Amino acid sequence: MAASTASSLPSIAFLGAGSMGGAVLQGIVASGIPHEGIIATNRTAAKADALTAEGVTSIALEERPDGNLDAAASARIILIGVKPAMVPDLLREIAPALRDDAIVVSLAAGVTLDTFAAALGEGVRTIRSMPNTPATVGRAVTGLAAGAHATAEDMALVRALFETVGSVIEVPESQIDALSTVSGSGPAYVFLLIEKLTDAAKGMGFSEADARLMAEQTFIGATALLAASGEDPAELRRRVTSPKGTTERAVAVLQDARLDEVFTEATAAALARAKELAAGA
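Structure tokens predicted for Pyrroline-5-carboxylate reductase:
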């Protein structure tokens, strides 16, 4: 994980702290980095109360319908975490209340910077982000793309925010959707592989608990070894794969299944869906 370059963060508003916004929010709180205040809005009081317990000023929109407006007006960095279809209306609602130095950051999949510019008006600083859910445990990968009016200082500030919850890659907006097919959707791919390896272990007679322990800790241990060694994953795979051994036979089966093509097709399917979302489909 990259260390954050920030010693402190300015005021932050999360407008919609659902799965992704909530993951980033939890990660920032867990990092312990000082900040000038965090405000989060959610539709229901139950969700708002859960966030308040984490030391966040939380607003339930069912109780304060103008909560998004108040939160946006109070913050330097405003993260938009509502569902993609709700983004344009929310942006038009908060546009009149934004501070002159406000930076509006998208967490919404498939919503372009052009959509943000059209709803917010000329000159507003915007940045598009694509984090992933390991932000909750400080191990996110976040892609950032600068809008037309975002300065280098704005990007550095938002980068520092996301570095509190993991690593950051700066890309042109044209690559954000492609990035999302790897790091954004990637945790689901890993969980699926663990799920299927667990099933295979259960099929060989292991209990549910032992099967899960073997599969989960093998993935956790392998990635920890990869991080600690600095080696290429292909090299580490070769070291485990003794000539004419059991692992070589198993890996041959996986390669015969053309995993390279499967992952290429999977990421292509995710990218196609991202383009559909951007087009409003």
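Strands lie at 12-15, 38-42, 57-60, 77-80, 103-106, 125-130, 140-146, 166-170.
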